[in-house]
Amino acid sequence: MVQVKSPRELAQMRKSGELVARVLIDLIKFAKPGVTLLELNQLAEELTLSFGAKPAFKGYLGFAHTLCTSVNDQVVHGVPSKRKLVDGDIIGLDFGLVFEGFYGDSAVTFGVGTVSERAKKLMQVTKDSLYAAIDAARPGNTLKDIARAIEQTIKPHGYGIVREFVGHGIGTKLHEEPQVANYEAGASNLQLRPGMTLAIEPMINEGTHRVKVLADKWTVTTEDGGLSAHYEHTIAITENEPEILTAWNSVLHEIEKSLDSETIKRGAYGQRGSNPS
Ligand code: MG
Ligand code: MG
Question: The whole model's pTM is what?
């Protein structure tokens, strides 16, 4: 059953989403060459607990960490390790928490230091596909419209859309119905209604869509070793514009505009639902 949230429940989801965004924003600022993936995980956990929230992933199906850190050819579910970030890496951070019984879930991919043009383009197109999908998340549309929006953004670039992993409903559980596929053939005709809350999360590979799982049983990588990018927002369907509950957008834009600058304005987050330019 796909749940429709009440205004009170949506208010709770808004709180959880804002906390998720605050953690991701601090992680983005902290992620510099020399920082290890475990240090990022540690910071995510400390911030989560400081908010009085609990990590959503730790203990989930046996996952031992608070944060997923997926570097370069890693697609999703990267297990934090002692690996240090180096100049030119792209890193996907996927983070979720539960606060007062409600979950938020979001992911962002960004460059560490100076990254290649091909990496920048993959990240930009993947991010564009997320916002195209969010824009399609309106009453009367279906899950196929969301998937089609992603596919239409990705296809002209020849990238591969990962099929094995999909977005999901979210609320009092991390994963609720429905599944939110990122390609049209995998998506259902379920109609969207105000009050539905979804985590939309395109995972895009620069080469083949095919993926494999490493021996740690978690880390998913591209089959061909090509780069991969992943963006995710928890959103609410409303009568009007979709509402982004986990908006970290503005800070990421700051960072992208000033990749060579160490100075990143603080306090720019919280612009809920703002459209990416
Ligand atoms: Mg996630
Ligand atoms: Mg998710």
Answer: 0.91
